[in-house]
């Protein structure tokens, strides 16, 4: 929860997707949009003084709406009932209506000469909503209700196995992480996807309404609106993502080739053909987005570092709170102030036994100041330990920019927020684990291949998934993908970018994108792709600042105040400047560079190429 308007996160991240209208409805929508934009852009002799008055009024109103919306959504996600869903929906409606009104009013100042800071605030207002609702109270309410309903479907979703066991998503994910039974994995994979088909008509309607709202602000479609938020032309942003993916793809292709061969050896090449995409249910994750859970199947020989973080957490009696405090210590070692006491009394750390909650990990700023929290159903694993670092990264970022005007209390670009915690997690090296007493000795460099493999299965494997989710939505938004082709287009993109396929033919009414939280929640996903690029570049730069002499994958900035000072300087900027300026503070460059990933995984890439000799790679 780290955006300007809580409406963009309220009611299950109220970002409203778009689909094509019928020709008659499209014409009507275009006419309405034209009239609204014409009205919005009439300056009527407005002045810079008028802009100041407008922004001053809106800032106060936003602060009130944000607090009300955050509280309503916190209650809903922690106590999922019809009543709390209604409260969340009502708050979402208020914020949506306000956000649309502010965006349209801000557009009236497009032709007015104002100071650069004021212009940036006006632009932030125009783009604050992920997808604006139409200027119609009934449609705004409908939109909020749709979002709340889909969020509830996802949060309450369960599957009853053939054996009669009712499983939540958390329970199914846990089984998929450890099971090596092909048929059990297939049942679980299919089972969770029985939750999403009912979302499809809701998603279609929500998309149609979102399209109407986006066009009223003058955007061709919602995809263009999303891509316009990165301090560069929308088309250039899309090209930039392609350029970055092109830098990483050779490493991913070699990782994919190796993993497919190892899975073929385990399950049989009849189940994992060596010239086809990998069946999605065999990669240890419900969405095949990260592959770290199958490390035991693909681990290099003699690469065991001699420890397992999950086992070490248990050995040292870490409970959920100690895991969070451990992550906090890393930030304080860099010079950041400790988390406030209210963080510990108001956060949710474990899944309650007596009620439904939204277990998806998230970080919250409730008041734009010091009431920061996380909401997680923590499991005592090494993966969750890293996730906690990630979520606290949001919190420390939120507090760093708390003194910025409310318009600029956000991520320089949305990838930054996701990257900061992961940047810290890259410093959770064996050297650091020894320093905090979790392990007794640092493995020698011969064990690095195993550690890099484990990291690559999560980080490198994720990158194409991080790209394709929004590739799919951009096609939906533009009308290139129509509702009847939602599922087909989803799997075409997954095969193209990931080399991953559905393990069985999918039903005509399937809505597999809806089985991924961020789709029904309508949360833009390019931020996660960007974060996976940025974190390695931030890590490389901070290691250089700290005076590190180790290989980049062995570097830890723990306890280095110079690195912490530079990091904090960047975080304090919030979104007050173009993201390129914030990026330059730490990296020295204004353009992202994915070669930091290649530098980090260089020893592994060399090893993979050697292992893949004689194999047929590609998909």
Automatic annotation (TrEMBL):
Organism: Thalassotalea euphylliae
Domain of life of the source: Bacteria
Residues noted as binding chloride in the record, renumbered to the chain: 230, 527
One cellular-component annotation, GO: membrane
Keywords: Disulfide bond, Glycoprotein, Metal-binding, Signal, Zinc
Signal peptide: 1-27
Protein name: Peptidase M2 family protein
The UniProt record lists the keyword Signal: yes
Residues at which Zn(2+) 2 binds: 390, 394, 418
One GO BP annotation of this record: proteolysis
Residues reported to bind Zn(2+) 1: 390, 394, 418
Active site: 391 (proton acceptor 2), 391 (proton acceptor 1), 518 (proton donor 1), 518 (proton donor 2)
PROSITE patterns the UniProt entry points to: PEPTIDASE_M2, PROKAR_LIPOPROTEIN
An annotated Gene Ontology molecular function: peptidyl-dipeptidase activity
Cystine crosslinks: 359-377, 543-555
Family matches, as InterPro entries: Peptidase_M2
CDD domains given in the database record: M2_ACE
